[in-house]
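Sample A.
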Amino acid sequence: MIGLDELEGYKPALKLEEAIELWSSGKGE
């Protein structure tokens, strides 16, 4: 079972990755 701490660790990382992807795709093109 995944612990809440693990989930909390993943959520911001996924959001950050998503934000970077959107930012770089928008800035690169």
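Sample B, a different protein:
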Amino acid sequence: MGFSKQAFYRWRADPVTDRDWADAHLTNAAIDSHRDDPTFGYRFIADDLHAAGHRASEQRVWRLCSKQRLWSLHAKKRGRNRKAGPPVHDDRVRRAFAAPDLDKLWLTDITEHPTGEGKLYLCAIKDACSRRIVGYSISDRMRSSLAVSALQMAISRRNPSGTEVHSDRGSQFRSKKFVRALADAGLLGSMGRVGACADNAAMESFFALV
């Protein structure tokens, strides 16, 4: 059967339990969730697992994440010293934030707003031609799903084809979920350089008015 007698006897003496199998599946799902968005700590990962149909308490997710050293790589979005990751797209825009027609170029970014009940995060998508917001999403958590929800709204409202979507290098826009959403809709991603605010100046100036 492809394994030694010693391995068989070790397995029979200490068989893998159903709980062990369940933990293994949860661990794989947690690793995928964290790889998709490295800012996730165990609480966000637990939420992601629940959304995917897995049943597990936060304590159990914490235990599994601790074993795998899945820690949140969190950095404040608006901090001066925030570090951006490697780009997943070339900079197709190169600061040319105008477009001759609708749905040729969309610009997107995330901003943070303090409220009496905590912080809220807004992701907006603006059409470079009309300068109108074509999609947005608001959440109390700055996750990849925030950017994906804004993109899905814009897609459902505009039904674009071949649109360039320009962002900074935030983890939400580099996440597998966002990149996959772009590809599934036939859109083209574009990313500015690290620390170059002018590379997404059109959205920065919009958020200054919000």
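Observation for Sample B: Helices lie at 5-13, 18-36, 42-51, 58-68, 144-158, 171-174, 176-184, 201-207.
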